[in-house]
Amino acid sequence: MTACSIGFLLFSAVLAVVIPMMPRIGVRQCILGTANFVFLISLVPDMSSAACLFLFVLATYLALWLLRNKPFPGIVPATICTVVVVFFFLRRYSFLEWMLPESTWRRIPQVIGISYMLFKFIHMVVDQSQGQLAPFTFVSYLNYQGLCFTLTAGPIQRYNDFYQYWTSRELPVLDTREALISWNRLLTGMIKVAVFAAIALDLFERSRTQLLADPHTYVLERFVIFFYSYGIFMYFNFSGYTDIVIAAAKLIGLTLPENFNRPYVARNVIDYWNRWHITLTHWIRDYIFMSSYKAVAERFPNKGRQLGYGLLFLALLLAGV
Description:
By secondary structure, the chain is mainly alpha-helical. Helix content is 69%, strand content 0%. It folds into 3 domains: 6-166, no CATH class; 176-260; 269-320.
């Protein structure tokens, strides 16, 4: 079940009706947890993938539990490094193919949503080490990681915001106008993905085929279409998906962070990255750049500015990886 499907539309409609009607926290949590499980099952390709996904969530939860209850020096970098290595393995990065036997490489299962699970886990580790993380249990952590609205491609919601919703005794009630706005945004997002993104992708594929087949005729026109159509496809596909999940979450009283703000009218590159995939940009800023820059500035105060440029490059390099 993808976000741009009739199934997800019906799925969202059922949740929008049922969850706001439930007065008890436990019942709402049970319904949302069941919905998360159903959504996840619809995406998991096989049992080996499901087992890896569960083990990843269980292991990261245990690491957080150790950090909270039995911290010891070096646990934060050791935990993050270990999980990142496992992430590289499960994401099947091509450089590992040179290092692993072919039989092992072919057996690595496809794990849904692991990239955003890694982002969420690292955020929780850093916040816990700084004493800023809200209380968590295995159930709340499991539903935070497997939340159906943010599982596959974000936006990256911080745990404290999710926990506030998860434990809220009274959900915010949408009036008719707010509900209609949310439904309008959800349907508009589906049109972006199913119509505009599909047209842009078709133009991209056609222009690429024409350029390869005949690189001497109408080259400039075809290259312009080739160059710009993929960016248009990326915007409508990703921002449309984001509109769908933010609106669907809003219908059950859950506010997700915005992820796009008209990026193609940005004044410069810095402004662009503050408008495109905003939650990932802010995550990189807060949990890679600022954390590393703070450590460097405290240890080498006279060279903090010069080293900051290298850390900025490192943060963007890791984002690319």
